[in-house]
Amino acid sequence: MLLLQLFVNGIQVGILYALTAVGFSLIFGSTKIFHFAHGATFVIAAYIFQFIYAGLGLHWILAVIVAMMATVSFGLFLNRFVYVPIQRHEGSYFTIFVASFGSVIIVQNLIGIIFGRGFLVIDTPLSRGVEVVDNLLVSPLLGIALLCAVMIFGGLHLVMTRTHVGIALRALSESPELVRTFGLSARRLSVYAFALGSSLVVPAAIFTGATSGLNPTIGYHVMLISLISTIVGGVGSIWGAAIVGLMIGIAENLALWQFDSQWSEAVSFAILFLFIIFRPSGLFGRASVH
Amino acid sequence: MFDYLKNMSLKNLGLSLTVGIGLMSSSAAWSEELQIGAIFPLSGPNAIYGDIFTSAFKLAERHVKEDGLLDGDFSILYEDSQALPQQAVTAMNKMVNVQGLQYVLTAFTGQTKAISPIAKRSQTVIINGGAVGPDLAKLTDYLWNVIPLANTELHGLLPYIVKERGLKSFVLLYVDDPLGDGILDVLNSDLPPLGATLDKTFSVAPTTQQFSGIAASIRNIGPDVVFVASYGDQMIQIVKQLRENGVKAQLASYSAFSTPNLQTLPAAKGALYARQAVNIDSDDNLTTRYLKDYQEEYGKSPSVYATNYYNAVWLYVLLAHELQKQGKEVTGENLLAQRRAMDSFPLVGGTVTFDDTGVLLAPIQVMEIDGEAGKTLSVMSTNN
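Structure tokens for the assembled complex are given below, as produced in the milestone run.
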């Protein structure tokens, strides 16, 4: 029964990781911008939702919409006023990373100043485990997160395969030169990537706030998971990132069955190292020759 | 300029130099700057503690200036450590080698252990009012603790849990750092003589955020008590996730459970913890003014941590005042000698004393989280 409980817990954690990672994977895969501030977007989403929902007492749907608007605005702002100017001056990949990292620190401190640096918990009875069979607890939030993930990934699949923007984003991920040859603007497409990728983080931020709680500094952990999922899933493959996010959550929990709890987090890195050594292009990535 | 000096008589030159040097030395005496340092997490996941400690310092600084006990300007310099040893060492080096401070306030077991060799080498007093790792008692004479350490707290708490509540099987969930390791040692040594057992331990990294898997494992073991040894936001995450994932065992911890966030966390209700007893009903002027002004300034009652750090500043003031009266320089070495020369110190909560290792002797309270300020279940003298 312990193994089954750990597996169920792993799915719940894994869904959150998958939802977190897919936005970063979309942005990084399409634009090749190392958007480290994706973690800050996550924090903004959680704190804005909590403020509207619990602070002002408004309906949760309104809180989700406002949180989504805030994250999209933040993503577009960074792209327009930080990344584009750096790229225009031919700033290196590393310069963009440092700028993005700096943005995380600024956001982290601003959130601390505005909302306090204490621990944020989105209080809901939905996060409490309910005994479904003997000694197996499942929280209602798992069902909601699962449903939400199916809808989001289904919707994302439609956007990426049936719309011009989605197809263009996939093309940008494959070959930016070819996109330009066809007369499309990579800059304009990156706007769509940032808007979509930033909005995708909202459900994960809300669910994380409800299940484990968070503080202004959680962005680093978010980025760690997103980065591992993106690399192991294969850069450019948003489905790869989602599947690996889910896998990491399950693996972290199942590790407790046989190993000491200290090793639980190391599992993510073990997976990363194994892939870097044996399949550097990732689970769904394609090897390229330079 | 040189022509002017050539034209001066030797007598006039000597007189001018004497007057000049005299003026300089008297001006230095009157404008002596008494600065102390504070190395705390002002950012990062433990910044909530920095806020609590800083609230006490600001009030202490104000009171010191109002009372005028010290000859010279008094101020507190801050450095952010994020509760990390590496940052704390950098901050300590700056305070000792650049700013020349003789008295530095610190917190958290890991960072305090990290800076203690610098304190010993430079004969700088470091004073801790928040960390409770048991091995802090023996690091150096220059480390003083105005808080009883975890071994003392647990000597009060564990007999209560085992004898009064009849709970005998323990599981420990601890953060893998000097604090957690210290508490593991105390449980290993203290539980068997009480007839209790430590059935399983779960160590986690300070950065771990997910505990649902550990909760499932604990539920599978079914202990009477889950002892939690962590701090900061992680402590809240642990308690919330244990309860939401079906762990119904008695929760217990050390004084870190006394933070306001945990006191009001619904999942923590009924948890037991130990902390030092501070007599806030003491009618001395220092205590009544502190309680009144803290309430006015921050709109709430001070926590034990805030009181400890207020006392830490006040201890410096008492010692420095005595040294100045004796015409001695306020150095780390003289502060240590003066602390040893004085038997007791009137601080907030009454008169206190230190043991030979520089740890404050205070009674220990066993508390239960009741959603408000906490319910006192028993009080044990440190000498028991």
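Chain B has two domains: 31-147+280-362, 151-278+366-380. The longest strand of chain B covers residues 33-40. Further analysis is deferred to the final report.
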